[in-house]
Input
Amino acid sequence: MNISRTVTSVAVLLGLLAVPALADSFGTGANQFDIEFVTISRTSNPGGGYGIVRNDYRIGVYEITNNQWDKFKASLSVAATGDPSSAYNSDPYWTGANVPANRVSWYEAAQFVNWLNTSTGHQPAYKFTGTQGTDNYALDTWTLAEADNATNLYRHKNAMYYLPSEDEWVKAGYWNGTRLQYWATRDWTDSLLQGDGASGSGWNYYDRGYATDPHGPWDVGSGSEELNGTYDMMGNVWEWMESPYSDPDYGPGSDRVLRGGSYYDGAGLADLGLGSHHRGRSYPCDELYNAGFRVAAEVPEPASLSLLAIGSLALIKRRRRA
Ligand SMILES: [Ca+2]
Ligand SMILES: [Ca+2]
Output
C-alpha cells in the first residue's frame, strides 16, 4: 500500500485539498523566499491528448520572478551555467523584481529546481555531470531504475521539486473538471481584456496588441486568477516544460516544449499562443526574452494532515464497528 497516496485520497475525500495555496520556503536570511503551490488532483483526466496525469501534484501559483531568481543565484554561489559553455549566461531582458524571470534557459531552470531540492534535503530532479559553475556541467538522463517513469528519463523519481511535464502543466492551466478549456479563464465565456495591474483586476490580455502599454511582462499575479488557482499560465511569459517536444526524444539537446504564450499574445491575434492546444518549442540552452518557467512539486505529507487522515480513518472504523 502506498501510504502517501492513501493519505492524499483520504484528504481529497475530506475536501482538504481544496484549501488555498500553501507556500514552501527556500534560502536563508536576505535570500529567503517562498513559492506558493496549488494542488492538482489526479482524478478526472482528459480522454486523450495532453493533460492526462497519474498522480496528484502541486504547481506553482506564479511564474518564478526575477527576485526569486536573484536569490537563488546568490544562494547557489556558483554560476548556473554549463555545457554548451557560455551559451546561457545572459541577464534578464525585463528587469522588474516581480516580473517573471526571463532569458532563463531550460538548463538554468533545471539548476534552479535542483537547488530547491538539494537545499531542502531532497534528491535533485535533473542529472548533471561535471562541475557546477563550469562549462563542463552537462545534462544527462537518469537510468530507467532512477527515472520517474519509463517515459520520463529527465526526472528522478525521488525529487520533490521539478519542472512541470507538459501533461501536468496543461491540466493545471486548462482543466475545468470536465474538459480542457481553450482559455484558462475561470469562466470559459470570459473575455480576455487588457489588465489593470494596480487593482489586480482584468485578464492582462488585449486582442489587438500587447497586453500592457508599454509592452512587456507584468508583475506576476496582477491579473485574474485562473481555473485552478494559478496566475499567468496563460500569457506574461512562455514557460518551459520539462518534456521534450518530440516524445520520447530524451536527448540532452532535444527541443523542449514552451507553453502558454506571452504578453504579446491575445485572443484576436493570428498566433493563438494562449490557447490550450498551442505548443511552442526551443533548444534547451536558448535564453528567450519572453520565456521563463514555474515549478511543480510532489504533494508532501505534512504530519498534521497525516494525523488528521489517520484520525479520520480511525473514526470511520469505529463507526463501522458501532
Ligand atoms: Ca540566463
Ligand atoms: Ca506564463
In short: The CA atoms of residues 155 and 203 lie 33 Å apart. The first strand starts at residue 22 and ends at 26.
